[in-house]
Every structure is written in C-alpha cells, then in structure tokens.
Design a protein that fits this description.
Length: about 450
Amino acid sequence: MTRIRRAWPAGIILSGLVLLPSVLPRAGEQGRPSRAFVLPNGLSVFLYEKHDLPLVNIVVSVNAGSKDETDATNGIAHLLEHCLLFRGTASRSGGEVSRDVRRHGAYFNANTGQDLTLFETSLPSSEADFALRNQKEVLFDFALTQADLDEEKAVVLEEMNQTDDDPQRHGIDLAMRFLFDGHPYGKPVYGRADVVRAARVEELRDFHAKYYVPNNCALAVVGEFRSQEMEEKVRAIFGPMEKASLQPASIAKARLLGKSVTFQEEKDVKEAYLFIAYIGPDCNHPDQYAMDLLTEALGRGCNPLLNIALRSRRDLVQNLNTAYIPGRFGGAVIVSLTLDPGNIAAATRETLNYLRKSRAESFSRDDFPGDEKYDAFDFLGSAKNQIRFAAEQAEESGLTLASSLARFMLQNERENPGRFLDHIARTSSGDLRKAASVYFGKGQCAVISIVPKKAAGSGRKG
C-alpha cells in the first residue's frame, strides 16, 4: 500500500459537485438499482449498482474532522486517520493490513477535512467481502502503541512541512484560517505542529471512542453487485456493532466577514501568490447552485471573466483560478492568482473592484437586447456546460460517486434536495447577480499574499 500525499482541501477541484446527489433520484430511471437504509445501530447505508466495470467501491464517512477539535487538540483528527490507515488493528499490524490490501488488489486511502473523514476502498468486485470486513476492522477495531504513534507523527509532520513549502496549498490554508477566524473551520486540517508532536495514545483513543461509532458514520457501496446480496453482507458485517450515545457539538453557521483582513508573508518563491477569499453559502443553502456557476464563470473554463478583467488593459496575472468550497456550516470562495510581485497592489484592486461590480454583470445572452445577444458570449451557458460535464464525469467514477454519496448522507439537511443538475439548469443570470451582490457586494474579504523574501515585510496583518 502506497502512502498517497493528498492535495488540500478535499473537494476543491469538483467544488460542490461532490456533495450533492445528482444521481440519487434518477437511480431507478437509469435502470441502476439502488437501496438506502439505516441499520438498527444508526449506520446510514446507500447501495448503488453500477455494472460497467467489475469493481466495487466502498467509502465510509465519519462525522469528525478539524471542526471537532479544540486549540489543544488541533491535528488529532488527521493524525488518527493516519494511524487507522497505516498502523494496524487489534488483530493485524499495519504491515499485515497493507499486505492483505495488496493481495486483494485494492486501492485503500483516506482523507480528513473540516467536516468529515473519509476512508475509501476500490477493488475487484469478487473481493467485496474482504473490503467490507477490512473497512470495519480498520475503522472500529482501534489499537495503537505510543511507539507506532510516534513513528506516524514524523510522517504527518513531514506532510505539514510539504504543505507549508507549497505556496498554493499554504496560501489556501492561510485564507481559510483568516476567513473563518473564530469559527471551527478556521482550524487548519493538518493541525498544529506542537499538538501533533505532543499527542498521546490516550488522546487519540478518546477521540476515536467519541466519534468512530456507527450512528456517526455513513457507508456507500457503488459497483458490480446485486443490492439484496450486498445488503445482506452489510447487515451481517456491520449490524452487530452497538449504537453509541452521541452528543454532537452545536456549531453555528459561519457569518460574512465584518471587516476585511490582509496578510502578507515572505517565502522562498520566485513569483507572488495572491488569494482573495470570501465567505460563501454552505452546502445546504439555496445559493450554492448560483455560486457553483458564478465561480465557474469568473475563474474557470476556457474564457473566465476575471481573466478578461485582469488582462484587458495590462497583463496583471500569469494564472488564476476560482474555487467554491461548501461545508455544512459555511462555504468559502477563493480566487487564486499567480503574478509578478510588482503587480500585487494593482491585481488586488482590479479583482476586488470587478467582484464588487459583478452584481451588475451580463452573464447570459438573454441579458442583451435585440441582435446584441447574438454577438455576446454566453458565460452562464458555458458554465452550465462545464459543470454538467464535470458532474457526468464524476458519476462515471465509482469511487468518486461512492465518496459523494457517503458525504451527502452525513451533510444533507434538506428533506427534498432534488437533483443537483436540475437546480443548475434552472439557475438564471439574475441568480448569479444576486449571489454576487450578497457575497461580494460589500467587499469584506481576506486578502493573503505570499511574496519573495526580498519583496516585502513578513507576516504583516492589517
């Protein structure tokens, strides 16, 4: 089993797509049987048959992440994920688990975020029994020595160093910290180095006992199987687990920033990196669909509006991208720019001005009168096409689909969410302008810049 270094944060590429049930209501329509149920112990389960490849994809999501940590435990959730994945169980060592995973031809990995921790397995469908039993044992049969924990700390600390050395990942991390300052989402997912270094087995054991219980988890299985047979397997393997007493913490929804904050840091880089971040809608908010389309039109695809704005008069940026990261308790919209250090002030000013004025932008051909519409570029239509393509592509991947379903079961708060792509299709240019007005209109944001050491003072905040 290979340790895979993950990009942070999870979901940033597919944006909100990985959180929403574009497949659920149409499972029967596609002739792909599906089954959803909850075990007596509280484990939520979704089974979805997908017979195009002889594979089965199993994802368990745990409602535990950095949001559930305190300042004194920040980093425990991610450290625990590592130990579960690589350090074995009460009956098998980490090396034995790795050997068994390879022997069954499986891909096995995990990911920690602010809201959830996910454990993913993909392997030949003939090995489904092993995958289910392995997931149960690895996640719930927790056993760890201090010596193994200390070895895994070194791996996690090296990951943290790699993140700090990567200006793109470090900049996004800083943007999230300032954007959600005072909110549980403001804690870095990788945690604090001093907390990780000092972590004891007892702390991980307590965290595991509190959150790694069936009624705080969801299981999604996607692939080549028959739903009735798979349900019998799931009930036989996971059913005997006992339901636990849960007292989830009360977490408030993130609020829009009251005032803007700026921060600049020197690093050993040759070019500058600029991040402009706003609070966005959470993953259950109706504005999520407009924000998905808005970020696509602004900074993704073949003809992004921000690229036009920043290059029309002078070439201010080398690369740009926008990302919408929706969580259960709040979302983030982050514009990422790579540019010459001398252009930071101008690029910041132009970006903020354009985003503020985007509440009056013509995103669709229908916004233009008469024959003018035939010469106008349809940014809304292009964004819808790009999102539709990404969603359909995600559905073709059994593992991505299983991860999406596992996330959705724990994060959805709506009784009738509907199909994601249907919501996207109904979203209008006026909806984009409304979202731009709500989230960009007042201009409060976090502005983070990473510059070469010779270009500016380090760690300046305003």
